[in-house]
Amino acid sequence: xxxxxxxxxxxxxxxxxxxxxxxxxxxxxxxxxxxxxxxxxxxxxxxxxxxxxxxxxxxxxxxxxxxxxxxxxxxxxxxxxxxxxxxxxxxxxxxxxxxxxxxxxxxxxxxxxxxxxxxxxxxxxxxxxxxxxxxxxxxxxxxxxxxxxxxxxxxxxxxxxxxxxxxxxxxxxxxxxxxxxxxxxxxxxxxxxxxxxxxxxxxxxxxxxxxxxxxxxxxxxxxxxxxxxxxxxxxxxxxxxxxxxxxxxxxxxxxxxxxxxxxxxxxxxxxxxxxxxxxxxxxxxxxxxxxxxxxxxxxxxxxxxxxxxxxxxxxxxxxxxxxxxxxxxxxxxxxxxxxxxxxxxxxxxxxxxxxxxxxxxxxxxxxxxxxxxxxxxxxxxxxxxxxxxxxxxxxxxxxxxxxxxxxxxxxxxxxxxxxxxxxxxxxxxxxxxxxxxx
Length: 438
Known about the structure:
- By secondary structure, this protein is mainly alpha-helical.
- 77% of the residues lie in helices and 0% in strands.
- The protein has helices spanning 3-14, 18-21, 23-30, 33-60, 67-75, 77-110, 118-137, 141-154, 156-167, 188-203, 219-248, 251-255, 260-296, 298-305, 312-315, 325-341, 344-372, 387-406, 408-419, 421-437.
């Protein structure tokens, strides 16, 4: 893989459905356009540094499992197990649930469902969508992969249309970039922290970028460039789409709607044109759900193959087409339960909080392994030490600590669900020891 292929992989991996809908949470938290846009910039910078940092471990520890392998190598089995548990119980199901909810919300908005029936209809569509995509994946990896390629292209079309026509919109709304401040009755840093948490869902996916290191011709030179230019391009796209939104609607109007992209489309293109663009966004979200479904079911399957889950023999079964269908069914059931418990922002905030605990441990692992294993072969090293590594670690700590302070109950739920994995880990470990001693 050369530089251009790596660059497009980075962009395609990171851009998902969040950019179309997170404007609501970002401007709801900040109350102003200036602080909201700053959150998108800071989120991009942290993501660039995170990608550059994680790539060192990916190149030095090119094992199946990605981040699970990095944590196991650095901290041992328990940390790796808890990550796999958190991905199985929280990260992948919450992603599927949240995106399915937003898929249902977008569909209801397009087809103007009666307000009294809206909530039940959104939930029904979300459940049906998640079930349909899961069973499409059961047809085989080739089918799932074909869906992903098609929908990756489709998600770029509505982005381009909204950016071009939004920024060129006549009679656009005015807003100030400076001074950067929070809205009325809001504190600067807590508002920035909440907005940053929202942007990190849109930027998520960067951890997968490092996994391509082993497939590159010249990872030492091309990987850091692909990450920097790729995520920088994503950040520019996100800033442009937000500017196009802000040229059409005010920050307070964006905060008040659950479907900002649909509302902007209707103003730009009228009802019919708006619906066409919104259907394009719907297709984009569908593809993102497919991506998380396709990759999510592999995590409990791999854990089961190593006998690290209760009922491992059940989770480890494959269909005739080689699909871990029982693991997929489990992820689907948990996702459906989540759809009835939490909304889009609640679920995405919790999954971002939990996964960033492990991301931060991954960043710290780079420092630990530099000290503990200086002779470890590193085809690629984090550039501009200690700046890049420090930004990644400080950014991760800020996201985790800020969530603990501003959304304490949500954070405790995330931590609690993750720590439930500990007794399971010790029980399985004890059973393995008993079997070995027989």
